[in-house]
Amino acid sequence: MLDLQFIRDNIDIVRAALKNKRREVDLDRVLALADERKTASAAVAEINRKRNEVQKTRDAEAGKRLKDELKAAEETYQTLEKELVALLIKIPNIPSADTPVGPDETGNKVVRSWGEARQFSFAPKAHWDIGKDLGVINTEKAAEVSGARFAYLLGDLVLLQQALIQFVFGILTSRDALAGIIKEAKLDVSDKPFVPVSIPLMMRSQVMNRMARLDPIDERYYFEKDDMVLVGSAEHTLGPLHMDETIPEARLPLRYVAVSPAFRREAGTYGKDTKGILRQHQFDKIEMESFSKPEDGFSEQEFFVAIQEHIMRALKIPYQVVLICTGDMGFPDQRQFDIEAWMPGQQAYRETHTADYVGGFQARRLNTKVKRADGTTEPVHMNDATAAAIGRTLIAIIENYQQADGTIAVPEVLQKFVGKKVIGKVE
Questions:
Q1: Is the per-residue pLDDT at 427 higher than 90?
Q2: 135 CB contacts (<8 Å, ≥6 apart)?
Q3: Under a CB-based contact definition with an 8 Å cutoff, are residues 337 and 323 in contact?
Q4: Angle, helix 175-185 to helix 297-315, in steps of 10 degrees
Q5: Maximal C-alpha separation, the chain
Q6: b/e string for 95-112 if b means 16 or more Cβ within 10 A?
Q7: What secondary structure does DSSP assign to 351-412, as a single string?
Q8: CA–CA separation, 170 vs 178, rounded Å?
Q9: pLDDT (tens digit, 9 = 90+) per residue, 325-353?
Q10: Which of 59, 128, 157, 193 is most buried, judging by how many CB atoms fall within 10 Å of its CB?
Q11: What is the DSSP annotation of 185-243?
């Protein structure tokens, strides 16, 4: 949520953000409500002052009259407050100055790329054909059991999945590994390791709303009877980990990593990416989350992207880094980068990572603050990013490491975790 004074002082910037993020909010009504709420608050304070004076005189009749006036004034204030907050939470975060303005993904900008596409001596296959031939991906039986966009992973592919998790966690929990990434990327950030977290997979809808991730509700699995939502990413319950807390600045940054299932309805994607495991209702993902001082927020995002790139380079998968435009970025995002891996079986780059810098937007809604050395407080700045979308990273490995005999070579950095160099057919 944006600070009300910021909106008042930067009304043109906020209007532009609404337009470029394709949102509609009556800002004139917002400012009018803010003024009315201020007047109502002053009225409540004045009535309370009068009540304190009347209590000294023991005038029962005047006391009753002021009590009734106070009730009416408080009801007026609450009505204004409710309408104002309902509008404020619909205003998106302000895109960073370097975010491209564009209507949709066509406005995204490739900022750099790494690696050369492998040249095959045979026609490379898509992962769904390779997985089916080896018996390591079964979407047909999953469709019978659970419906479309679910999958069984079997055999050595599951070992590869677990290897990827171990490899990534080994990097994120190692100060030495992180220091090496920082040095390579020439960043000025802390090398403080990430704390592993096992997260709740369900959360109250009001808390997800405070995270600014509830909308669109059609994308969520919502259980109305319990007023609970399944997480669409570990970020959804990592972000509120310090909800309604004030953190001393000496403790920042606080960094967390979690691997968890993620659940998404994939509403509006009927007929899109129906083959294989690229777009699933349930998938596993390793997610990074951090809380930092405001002045460190941008560099923290650069660090997260550097980690993502380090992982992709270690796996030797060609990729490109994309700066996401206003019309394609998330509602709470101030700046968003995606990493897209080259998928030779599809002859296309496909998204495998996202890095979202949200500034103080979520923290203001979550009431998560930093306490400065001088005693003042302000919202912390938050970052979340994919360390590895497991299914999509497996796709990138399958397609880039496929061999002429139909088997899959295991990336060198994962071989010690898998215990073999080649993934063959499930017998």
A1: no
A2: 154, 155, 425, 426
A3: yes
A4: 100
A5: 98
A6: bbeebbebeeeebbeeee
A7: EEEEEEEEETHHHHHHT-EEE-TTS-EEE-EEEEEEEEEHHHHHHHHHHHSB-TTS-EEPPG
A8: 10
A9: 999 999 999 999 999 999 999 999 999 99
A10: 157
A11: HT-----PPPEE-PPPSEEEHHHHHHTT---SGGGS-EETTTTEEE-SSTHHHHGGGGT
Residue corresponding to tokens 């891996």: 341
- Report pTM: 0.94
Distance, CA of 258 to CA of 231 (rounded, Å): 13
For residues 149 and 403, is the Cβ–Cβ distance under 8 A? no
pLDDT for the residue numbered 377: 98
Question: What whole-number distance in Å separates Cα of residue 101 and Cα of residue 358?
Answer: 17
Kindly state the helix (H) or strand (E) to which residue 318 belongs, with its residue range.
Answer: none
- Say how far apart CA 10 and CA 32 lie, in whole Å: 16
∠334-335-341 over CA atoms, to 5°?
Answer: 145
Average pLDDT over residues 80-90: 95
Q: Is 157 exposed, middle or buried (0-12, 13-18, 19+ CB in 10 A)?
A: buried
For the chain, which domains are there? 4-88 (1.10.287.40), 105-423 (3.30.930.10)
Tokens of 318: 């060609």
Q: Which residue has the tokens 């009315």?
A: 36
User: What mean pLDDT is predicted for residues 122-132?
Assistant: 97
- Taking residue 148's Cβ as centre, other Cβ atoms within 10 Å add up to 12
Residue 91 tokens, joined: 């205003």
Preceding peptide of 411 cis, ω within 30°: no
